[in-house]
């Protein structure tokens, strides 16, 4: 059974650029959630995708967008990068929504200069 | 709005001593509650999960947590700390049928030899 994988592991961008982060779900999981974890803080919920549809969103601006593909892998896109977007971005997959256990990937460390 | 509060951003214990990490949640509906552990440069790993089946929940690596509705608490304990327990610990809450998991700010556990 393959766990959750994320790519790339590290990324450096400049302000105003756009970035795409990728996540492969654990086998059999149909739900993907994305979190932003700033240094020294807990993960903050960005949004969740369930069966290719956005199922809920946290307090993040529209320049944070996502996709989920038929194989349940997912992308997080961030446009017009700002310095405060520098963080660890975590992807978590689960079977269904609600209180089901989420399995986290190792994250992508994004640095915006 | 639901929130999770972890008391103490840093906790230091001696090897073999009791570990107690505190978590309080605010919710009018008993939520799902989780404890996760994060080692440096890694994603989050689930330690244990409360789903209303039992108030005392046993998890991996000798950790357990007790749900106390009257105190809206879900503190994490381990009778005897091991050096390998040094990590960041996050308490989190999610509602039945909800899509959003709310994380606390985290508590870094240090274990002294």
Care to describe what's here?
The complex is a heterodimer of chains A (113) and B (113). With 113 residues, chain A is mainly β. Chain A has no helices and eleven strands. In chain A, a hairpin with a 6-residue loop joins strand 4 and strand 5. Chain B is mainly beta. Chain B contains no helices and eleven strands. In chain B, the strands form two sheets. In chain B, strands 2, 4, 5, 9, 10 and 11 form a six-stranded mixed beta sheet that branches. In chain B, strands 1-3-8-7-6 form a five-stranded antiparallel beta sheet, with no helix packed on it. Chain B is globular, with a radius of gyration of 13 Å. The termini of chain B are far apart. Chains A and B meet through strand 5 and strand 10 of A and strand 5, strand 9 and strand 10 of B.
Indicate the multimeric state.
heterodimer
- What profile does the largest beta sheet of chain B have? 6 strands, mixed
- The percentage of residues in β strands of chain A lies in over 45%
Structural class of chain B: mainly beta
Spatial gap, N to C terminus of chain B: 41 Å
Percent strand of chain B: over 45%
State the order of secondary-structure elements of chain A, H for helix, E for strand. EEEEEEEEEEE
Question: For the largest interface in this structure, which chains are involved and how many residues does each contribute?
Answer: A-B, 26 and 27 residues
Gyration radius from CA atoms of chain B, angstroms: 13 Å
H/E element sequence of chain B:
EEEEEEEEEEE
Number of strands of chain B: 11
Cα-atom Rg of chain A, whole angstroms? 13 Å
Structural class call of chain A reads: mainly beta
Shape of chain A: globular
Distance between the termini of chain A: 37 Å
Count helical runs of chain B: 0
Mean pLDDT of chain A: 92
- The proportion of residues forming helix of chain A, as a percent range, comes to under 10%
The count of DSSP E runs of length 2 or more, i.e. the number of strands of chain A, is 11
The outline of chain B comes out as: globular
Q: Give the low-pLDDT segments of chain B.
A: none
